[in-house]
Write a structure and sequence with these properties.
Distance between the termini: 91 Å
Number of strands: 11
CATH architecture: Beta Barrel
Number of domains: 1
CATH superfamily: Sortase
Largest sheet: 9 strands, mixed
Shape: elongated
Radius of gyration: 33 Å
Number of helices: 5
Structural class: alpha+beta
Strand content: 15-25%
CATH topology: Sortase, Chain: A
Order of helices and strands: HEEHEHEEEEHEEHEE
């Protein structure tokens, strides 16, 4: 049998009731009120401990995330240290093939083509990870990593160089590119980690101090078959899109329009000319959790067969 619900009329004493009836009703009302108070007192501890458990759960999850984030960072740093200790990287002063030299002897082009190549011993790297396709170095940043590539752009978002699960991921090349036959635009990605591992230090290129140093506008890319030097022509931030990571174009006009757009986004104090014959290198990393991207783009100016 269902319990009878109480309402406001249950606590009302009509005026026409006699004294005996009034006492009876008053007694029932007091009893009902005490019962309600008792019930509320029972509910208070339940609500209190429910809140405590809720907040403890949030706190525990946050502590775990911080621990996991820090652990992943430490693993990445250790991996990178092991690579630096074992892999030989040397400056190669031998001249290579100049890509589209200009008659303008005052152009910065001549300064950057005068820089030495970086040559890397890939034997050790390939034995560690057969997905290794290149080694990238960028001045006055922490970007000094072997570059990997697989058949998708997802795997190395959450796997380290040794293929262990890691939220920091690794530096990887777009699966659409071919390092041995450069596309119109070769794209390399990496997470923008707060501790500046992977591509976390790419944000330094947005600062006036970094941009004021002429030596910073070169990027070195070495592969098992050749060494290359790229000259930066555009640095900018943008919301996530697919346009800037286009790897090929349907016509020279389409590519020129793309180049004009990329160059117009530049925020650095440089005016590096680019044209449809240039092979472009694009470095991309996340800027924030709202989909922002930091982008650095450069053109190939010198290469050397190994």
């Amino acid at each position: 049998m269902a319990k009878k619900k109480t309402n406001d009329n249950d606590n009302y004493i009509p005026r026409h009731c006699n004294k005996k009836e009034k006492r009876k009703r008053t007694k029932k009302i007091k009893k009902r009120i005490k019962k309600r108070i008792k019930k509320k007192k029972k509910l208070k501890p339940v609500a209190f401990w429910s809140l405590i458990i809720f907040f403890l759960s949030i706190m525990s999850f946050s502590v775990y995330k911080i621990y996991a984030w820090n652990k992943d960072n430490q693993n990445i740093k250790k991996l990178n240290k092991d690579i630096k200790d074992e892999v030989k990287v040397k400056e190669n002063v031998v001249e290579g093939e100049l890509v589209e030299p200009t008659d303008d002897k005052e152009s910065d082009y001549w300064y950057y083509v005068g820089l030495p190549f970086y040559e890397v011993d890939f034997n050790s790297l390939l034995s560690k990870n057969s997905d290794t396709v290149a080694f990238i170095h960028m001045a006055n940043t922490n970007i000094n990593y072997p570059v990997v590539q697989t058949n998708n752009n997802d795997y190395y978002l959450n796997h380290a160089y040794n293929k262990s699960k890691n939220s920091a991921g690794w530096v990887f090349m777009d699966y659409r590119n071919d390092i041995n036959n450069l596309s119109d635009n070769t794209v390399i990605y990496g997470h923008g980690r707060l501790d500046k591992t992977v591509f976390g230090s790419l944000k330094d290129s947005l600062t006036k101090k970094w941009q004021a140093n002429k030596d910073n506008y070169a990027i070195w890319l070495s592969t098992p078959k050749e060494n290359m030097v790229f000259q930066i022509f555009s640095i900018y931030t943008i919301q996530s899109e697919s346009y800037y990571i286009s790897t090929s174009f349907s016509s020279p006009d389409v590519k020129q329009q793309w180049l004009d757009t990329m160059k117009s986004r530049n925020i650095a104090p440089i005016d590096t000319p680019v044209n449809i014959n240039n092979n472009i290198l694009t470095l991309s990393t996340c800027q924030n959790n709202e989909g922002g991207r930091i982008v650095v783009q450069a053109k190939l100016i010198k290469r050397q067969q190994r």
